[in-house]
Amino acid sequence: MSTTTTAPTPAPAGSPSTAPVKAAAADEGRIGLRANLRHIGALARRNLLQIKKDPESMFDVLLTPIVFILLFVYVFGGSVGASLGGNRQEYVNYLVPGLMAMLGLNIAMAVGTGVNDDFRKGVMDRFRTMPISRSSVLIAKIVVELGRLMVAMLILLAMGFVVGMELHGSVFGLLAAVALSAVFGAAIMWIFILLGLSMKTAQAVQGTAMLVLMPLQFGSSIFVPTQTMPGWLQAFTDYNPLSNLADAARALMQGDPVGDSVWWTLAWAAGITVVLAPLAVAKFRKKA
């Protein structure tokens, strides 16, 4: 009786091998904290070098604060300032802390489109074959975008002082408002990273993000006080995390009592991060 030996079927030409990915996934579990921090630093440096090669990617950071300050102050400042019991300068003091909350959302949207674009170009596939933590790739993105957010905040505050903003609180309060906006902005980035990993194109990410951003931004206390809004909309703004952040930033910068707004903002940031960061990392591992 003869025995027939069947040779293993070779993989089709051009099909990617899963061996490097499996090996990298196995190595990931053995990566320590120091190595993770080193990987995050190296990946953040890579992202910064990309910005250096493409300075146009900083246009949104440089121009958005200027455009929004000039647009809202000189178009709506007179009427809204009067409703606040003052003039245009009163509205500047009200608007700038609100715009600090809004900047984090706009930059977070850019993180989602950037992650999606990196996958389309195959950059993320190369990262997934390396023996590095999957979370380090996404955290490095957030670190660099937080740097961009700080640049936008600096320009926003400079423009605010140029058009007449007055700081009635302390410098410490101002720094605390910036830090609180950065913490919330980092948390929001996980939402858009997950969105970028889930959508097929960067255009789809941007379109979906706008559907999320518009109600959150305009259904809040960022631009105008909420007292004159309909009751049902006021109920929405009370639970809107952007309202909590804007109110907390105003209180910190103007030296007023912050109430519960700071704690609600921190609670929102912690909840979003705890829930969505693991989902984003898991999606990053499994994305085809």
Description:
The protein is mainly alpha-helical. It is built from 11 helices and no strands. The longest helix has 34 residues.
Describe how the helices and strands are arranged.
Layout (H helix, E strand, L loop, with lengths): L18 H10 L4 H21 L5 H25 L4 H34 L1 H6 L5 H29 L8 H28 L3 H17 L12 H9 L1 H14 L6 H26 L2
Helix pairs in contact: 2-6, 3-4, 3-6, 4-6, 4-7, 4-8, 4-10, 6-7, 7-10, 7-11, 10-11
Labels describing this entry:
ABC2_TM_bact-type; 76% helix; 288 residues; mainly alpha
What's the short version?
The chain has 288 residues and is mostly helical.
Residues in β-strands, percent: under 5%
- What class, by secondary structure content? mainly alpha
As a whole number of angstroms, the C-alpha radius of gyration is 23 Å
Largest sheet: none
Query: What's the pLDDT, averaged over the residues?
Result: 83
Which of globular, elongated, flat, extended, rod-shaped describes the shape?
A: elongated
The termini sit apart by 46 Å
- The total beta strand count reads 0
Describe the oligomeric state of these chains in a short phrase: single chain
Number of H/I helices = 11
Query: Which segments are poorly predicted (pLDDT under 50) over 5 or more consecutive residues?
Result: 1-27
Helix content: over 70%
Order of helices and strands: HHHHHHHHHHH
